[in-house]
Amino acid sequence: MLRKTLMAASAFALMAATSVAQAAEIKVGFITTLTTGAAVIGNDMKKAVDLAVEHMGGKMGPLDLEVIYADDEFNPQKGKQATERLVKRDDVDIVAGYIWSHVLLASKNVVLDEGKFLLSANAGPSPMAGEQCHKNFFSFSWQNDQTPMAMGELLNQRGVKSLYVIAPNYAAGQDMVAGAERTFKGKIVGKDMTAWPTQKDWAAEFTKVKAANPDGVFTFYPGGHGPAFLKQYEQAGLTGKVPLYSVFTLDAISLPLLQKAGMKSAMGTYMTQFWVQDLDNAQNKRFVADFKKKYGSYPSFYAAQSYDAMFAIKAAVEAVNGDLKNMDGMRKAFESADFPSVRGSFKMGPNHFPIQNFYAREVVADADGSWTTVNRGVVLANHQDSYASKCNMKM
Amino acid sequence: MNYVLFAEQFLNGFQLGMILFLLAAGLTLVFGIMDLVNLAHGSLYMLGAYFAATFSHLTGSFVWAILLAVPAMVAAGIIIEMIALRTLYARDHLDQVLATFGLILFFNELTRIVWGPEGQVIPLPAYLDGSVALPLGIDYPVYRLVIIGCGLAVALGLWVLVSKTRIGMLIRAGSSNREMAGALGVNIATLFTVVFGIGAALAGFGGMIITPITQAEVGMGEIILIQAFVVVVIGGIGSIKGAFIAAILIGVIDTMGRSFLDLLLLFILPANAAEAAGPALSSMLIFILMAGILFFRPQGLFPPKGAR
Q1: A234 contacts B12? CB cut-off 8 A
Q2: Do A224 and B119 count as a contact with CB atoms less than 8 A apart?
Q3: Other C-beta atoms within 10 Å of A86: how many?
Q4: Closest-approach residue (CA) in chain B for A192
Q5: Is B138 on the interface with A (CB under 8 A)?
Q6: Nearest-CA neighbor of A179 among A203, A144, A204?
Q7: How distant is the alpha carbon of residue A76 from its chain centre?
Q8: Domain A9-142+280-357 identical in fold to domain A146-273
Q9: Rounded distance between C-alpha atoms, residue B152 and residue B45, angstroms
Q10: From CA B240, how far away is CA B162, in angstroms rounded?
């Protein structure tokens, strides 16, 4: 009798223990690119998420935190499959990440149809900010057009009257150019849209720049093209003659490589971004210092966004005290954006995209001689994207 | 001012042509003599770039990097020929395309495993890194002049090799009529290995000298391979002279198209239509040229004598 009771009791205890363990855990699926050449970006994001988990002590509110990483292989189909595995097999509570707009657009319904939260840590395609905005989708980065719009404004502020544009001829390249053209008030004296990704030699374009002799060159070359562009800019003798302005071309991932290769033409160039690593707030200081200590390099803006997304989730979990079923409560917390962000305080717009500052960044050498960027002031304050008015959020 | 711009663009086109020539020379030899469609020729271009980048890191010298990487590429070419390609000679072209496409995937993945996903750079010594004043008031990058010089030197060297030496005679014989050369006692297997080694070194050399400009990257060879095939077809399969002239032709036309086509289109189209059509049309230009030449001279501009 006693034995039976004991066994039953221990069985109950065991059941209770497992059910407690289940309830007391939050699983976050994090999708990024961990293979192909773009893995350098994905790895930087993963590092930031790992650091966030460490800073949280592995807990969000009362819940234990588990992050499951998945690789989109820089491919919309693969990204969608990875999302399906996270949502269906791993049964994660929240899906976050996504570098690429096309991967996000292909994968979003997998998450949203299951009634789960989807948080972007980079991609900000215009449909998601406008007609396809969704109550359970939040961006913790920016809408694609905002950064080049800030660049157009920076060019005005720096007195650039004549501008030469060189950018790749594909969707993002055209968007970046259109964004800058929307705010730039001077004259565009030349524009070359180059074959993407095949063209990596700009001899012909730089020759034309020299002939046009503009006040500035605006460019956008993500990934491996950026360093090659700069190298040739220098070899063509344009460095120091025509100032270079760029978006998404130089970042904390490419600058150390450029420094190693001695490409001085990057020095002193300007870019625009929603965040700079020397922003003066406690969360950012801790993030940048610990990232540097742990990994030996400055975090990229991709890392900053990923770190922010994790802290946004933490704030939402704390707001509902670990009750993940309380979707409305969590949504309210995401909408309030009331969490310590590395970009300082910002508001979440009605389309669930941030309303935030955009800064001018200049490439400089830090006290140790490592190349990085510093804040050169706000270019656009509390800027909202142009698609928010098209969003009709269904609750 | 305008003719200076024109002259400078011509130099740019000439420089692109030199790189295309280095790739196409090996391709046309392998295709013409060995009758092998080698899609993986671009992988050799990539391997050359990575070899040179590694040697450049190890020795800290650009010149040593090239001097070490070229023999390494000959060795790599010979090894690849002996292990992977020998079995393909008897097969038809489709099998060769499939197998060498497999080699592309293999080399891309191998490169990613060995060197990592991020690109490799080769720093230039200070005396090559800058621009120099030429007559007519042209300010031109020194290194691009070096590339032009290297291309011309290799072309001269190949001409001497092919037309003045015994091995060149065998190559010409193999190019004209492989079976007959074999029947006359030429060791075709060894000849093929040597030819492939030379082709690998040429492609690798092209990859090496372009890397200080563009960076070594996984998949860099496939992009330029398409243009190199255009060069081979226009020049005449198996003809080094044809490859040389066609490479310069393609390089100059491609560069001129990129620079001036949108301005020319302005005469017949409204501004924003010209702006959109310019890049599209200029990237098609060399293929239009190839189609035209194939129509009038299907054997190419300079087919080797006696080729069928």
Answers
A1: no
A2: yes
A3: 26
A4: B279
A5: no
A6: A144
A7: 18
A8: yes
A9: 18
A10: 9
Chain-chain contact of B15 with A36 (C-beta, under 8 angstroms): no
Q: What does the alpha-carbon distance between residue A69 and residue A66 come to, in Å, rounded to a whole number?
A: 10
Please judge whether B144 and A203 are an interchain contact, meaning their C-beta atoms are less than 8 angstroms apart.
Answer: yes
- Domain-by-domain residue ranges, chain B? 7-217
Which secondary structure element, helix H or strand E, spans residue B68, and what is its range?
helix B62-80
Whether B224 contacts B42, CB under 8 Å: yes
Which pLDDT value is given to residue A21? Answer: 44
Nearest to B9 among A37, A207, A235 (CB): A207
Q: Does A189 touch chain B (CB under 8 A)?
A: no
Tell me the H-state helices in A29-131.
Answer: 39-55, 76-84, 101-112, 126-129
Whether the per-residue pLDDT at B213 is higher than 50: the answer is yes
Summarised one tens digit per residue, pLDDT across range A204-258 is 999 999 999 999 999 999 877 888 899 899 888 899 899 999 999 999 988 988 8
- Cβ within 8 Å of A, B 5-34: 5, 8-9, 12-13, 15-16
> How close B54 gets to chain A, by Cα (Å)?
13
Asked if A191 has any chain B CB less than 8 Å from its own CB, the reply is: yes
Nearest to A228 among B8, B213, B219 (CB): B213
Per-residue confidence band for A13, with pLDDT thresholds at 50, 70 and 90: low
Query: Chain A window 40-69: which residues touch B at a Cβ cutoff of 8 Å?
Result: 40
Q: What is the mean pLDDT of residues A16-35?
A: 75
Name the CATH superfamily for A146-273.
Response regulator (3.40.50.2300)
d(C-alpha A145, C-alpha A149), whole Å: 6
Q: Mapping DSSP to helix (H, G, I), strand (E, B) and coil, where does residue B165 land?
A: coil
Assigned token pair, A271 = 């870019």
- Length of chain B in terms of residues written: 308
Contact A204 B255 (CB under 8 A): yes
For B215, the closest of A36, A191, A224 (CB atoms) is A224
Q: What is the mean pLDDT of chain A?
A: 91
Shortest CB distance from B8 goes to which of A207, A227, A231? Answer: A207
Per CATH, which fold does A9-142+280-357 belong to?
Rossmann fold (3.40.50)
pLDDT tens readout for residues A363-393: 999 999 999 999 999 999 999 999 999 999 8
Chain segment B116-145, per-residue pLDDT in tens: 877 888 888 889 988 888 887 888 999 999
**Residue B121 to residues A252, A266, A370: CA-CA distances in angstroms?**
17, 15, 18
ipTM of the complex: 0.84
To 5 degrees, how large is the angle CA B283–CA A234–CA A272? 85
The full set of domain ranges for chain A reads: 9-142+280-357, 146-273
Q: Quick check: A185 and A151 in contact, CB under 8 A?
A: no
By three-state DSSP, how is residue A123 classified? coil
Is B117–A205 a contact, with Cβ atoms under 8 angstroms apart?
Answer: no
pLDDT-derived band at B277 (thresholds 50, 70, 90) equals confident
Among B117, B213, B219, select the one facing A231 at the smallest CB separation. B213
The DSSP element (H or E) to which A336 belongs, if any, is helix A327-336
Contact check, Cβ <8 Å, A261/B130: no
Reported as a pLDDT band with limits 50, 70 and 90, residue B307 is: low
Residue type, position A47, single letter: K
